[in-house]
Structures are given as C-alpha cells and as structure tokens.
Design goal:
alpha+beta; 3-stranded antiparallel beta sheet; 4 helices; globular
C-alpha cells in the first residue's frame, strides 16, 4: 500500500465523512485538484500552510485506490506532490490522526509517520 496524506480541519472532514467523499478545501477547489503530501512532505506542509492551527486532522489515504485521477506533479521546490483530479472517496481512507499543537507551535505528528 502506498500512502499519501491530507491535512484537513475537523469540521470539513466530519462533513466529508457524512457525505461519503471529500471535495476539497477552498485552496483545492480554487486550484482544481485536491492537494496531498507524501510522508516526507507533511511536516513542511504543516509549517508552511497550517502554522498555529489547532483543529486539524492528518488523513491517510491508500493512493492505489484513487486510480488515474491521482497525478504526481512538480510543485514546491521541484518536488513531486500528489494531486487528485476528482473527489476523495472516504473508502480510500485507511487512518486518521489528530494533529495537536506543541508548546513551540509546531504540530505533533503520529509516530507512524515519524518512522516512515
């Protein structure tokens, strides 16, 4: 299984679970695809776009369940990032974790991601 990750606020995610799919956050809708991160990109994405936010989840997705709508494209710093040109079906989600804030303002990542 190849995992990719989505950082999302809890209210948006709870709505998505009820609906059976996640259509994206405002930036995703604006850009025309859902932004994801690989394991080695999550910490920088959190720091760059979600600093100080305390209402976040890290959603773990089995990339193989997304088919051809998932594209790896050049983005920040020339790295390849996963982008989904479709709604994210909740059935592709394999786990989720709270992302609590630490005293220094960074987010506590789950142990499974730190060892990846």
């Amino acid at each position: 299984m190849s995992l990719i990750y989505k950082i999302v606020d809890k209210p948006s995610w709870h709505s998505a679970v009820t609906a059976g799919q996640f259509d994206g956050a405002a930036i995703d809708l604006q850009d025309g695809f859902i932004h994801f991160s690989a394991a080695n990109q999550v910490a920088e994405t959190l720091q760059k776009y979600f600093a100080g936010r305390s209402d976040l989840l890290l959603v773990c997705i089995d990339a193989q369940r997304l088919g051809d709508a998932l594209k790896w494209e050049v983005s920040r710093g020339g790295d390849l990032f996963p982008h989904l040109y479709a709604s994210l079906p909740i059935s592709a989600v394999v786990d989720q974790f709270d992302l609590p804030l630490l005293e220094n303002g960074s987010h506590q990542l789950p142990d499974s991601l730190l060892s990846a």
